Amino acid sequence: MSILINKNTKVLVQGITGKEGQKASAAMREYGTQVVGGVRPGKGGENVEGVPVYNSVKEAMSAHPDISTTTIYVPPFAAKEAILEAIENNIAIINTIVERIPIQDTAYCLAAAKEKNIRLIGPSSLGYISPGEGRVGVVGGPKILADEVFQPGSIGLISRSGGMTNELSWQIRKAGLGQSTAVHVGGDLLMGTTYADLLKLFEKDNQTKAVVIFGEHGGGYEFEVVEMIKNKEFTKPLAVYVGGKFATLFPEGMNVGHAGAIVGRGQSAEEKEHALKSVGALVADTYEELVEKIKIYA
Amino acid sequence: MNLYEFEGKNIFSKFGIKVPKSVLLRREDDIEKKYHELAIKSVVLKAQVLSGKRGKNNGILFASNIEEVKEAVEKIFATNIRGQYVAAVLMEEMLEIEEEHYLSIIYDTNKKQPVLIYSKEGGMDIEDVPHEKIEKHLLDIRQPEINFDIPFAQELWLCFLQSDTRLVEINPLVKTMSGEFVAADAKVAIDDDAFFRHKDWAFEPRTMLGRLPTERESAVGKIDEGENYYRGTAGKYIEMDGDIAVLFSGGGASIANMDALMKVGLKPANYTEYSGNPPREKVAQLAKLVLSKPGLRGLWIAGGVANFTDIAATFSGIIDALDEVKPTYPIVIRRAGPNEDEGKRLMRECAERNNLNLKIFGKEVAMGATATALVDMINSK
Q: Which CATH architecture has domain B215-379?
């Protein structure tokens, strides 16, 4: 089993005719994921490497009512409209790769999605991959390289960073292990799907025996994890790295790394580590150590 | 971007939030003329800096005649407020204060929606106000109308929405002797990513460090401008005190690597990160600026196993800079991903023709370990 995606998942690509949309469509198909359609207003009836293009999400849905996931590849100023269109058409999971979406637009989409119980992954998320099952987005890169990094296994992975999703997956593979699902949640201030949301899914997933998280200073998301462990909602071994200790050199409110890494009071890397340790999470001092710490539980 | 108090107050008044009468003083201004322009005897003079605690650091002074005003302004411009650059002095009418309240709106990241925070006990850090004296109301971002019995709540909410802010704070929100509410201070942070719908955003240059941007920082800021601003960003450049130049790929890797660099005892000359498969030209411009800092002792170029960033293309940008600068200090590179063999080949050729002291690693070695390699090369020089 895996989380979020399996072999039967049918995916839509909004913005399929753009450069990034085409690349993502190809990357998913190459990895065996069923991309059944794309959207680009005004280009309905065309196709992108055999994938039919529709004028609207509604048109795509009536042709493929079993679409359960959509991916958003449009410029930041068009993102809100595209996400809302997906929500209106009740697509269960929306993966948004777009970076630099205004926070207000993200908040608006999240409010609309919440009412319909729709899951938003991102913004600024390269997607997620379940080795042997499929991938949404571009995590892992070209298949030939992805196959060097990913193999089915028992480690669940959550990362604020797209590059580190791949890098950490590689560290897992190098240690002779594999991944159940690796998710890039995105680095924005507001995260559609949080660590806690994913830990709930990993808890229920039989394939996943342990989870690693690449976190960052700033934001309060790690504290939700602390609460979950305290309430026994997550009981599997968990190793966490919280990057950004150097940020103490900068004043509060300074934004380094991802947009979400705005350091507020009580949310420094050290304070997060302390809270996580207090409930028994394994805290890694460097990202390389994550795999060292989790190895024995795989 | 954080705004100065006077900029925040300009925005507040557009939304009907009352602010004290004031004039802004720049270094070159005729203070006497401005004082007469304001035509108020007793005034407050406030340093315009980007972070707080100015009250405790002589950043706020009082005066009631021209001599006192001149003296105070001179003092404030000469003051170093925790390393912050004093951009201007705001001269305001002195308020007759009866009560000091607190009002703000920020994003609650756990609830993923804005929250309005109000207390009748303002004037101090809100963290120091007891919990039971603070009201919190979650707001629906889709509802511009709210209905709370809180002064300026509706005005501030519209300001938050229409000005695309990440944070608005009035502390203190003063109730005057005559029973009127006035925003005595303004803390506003705007969301830079919303710039495309705010053609009027033309704020003077600043850094989040509170100092003026250095020449290099301003130059890096220009690389990403233009209609393709979101396509492969040259990213961030923050000048620091150390002597090791860094060029990191990706926000997460950059954070892990900054930590790793400090851990091995090296000091960064800058913080720099590019991401999202930027074109060769953007990387070249960025790399040239990073290498232009005097006094460097080493260069660390590091990133994870890239997903879709073309390693040969980004390396070509870095090579353009290395060919020009020809550094004599040790260089360590760690990177993997699409087109890495071609990228490494180009990099080795560059090292050879420029006689560079350069080591290059792929994914067989973790990023942190290559920081140690750089230390060894520096020490054996």
A: 3-Layer(aba) Sandwich (3.40)
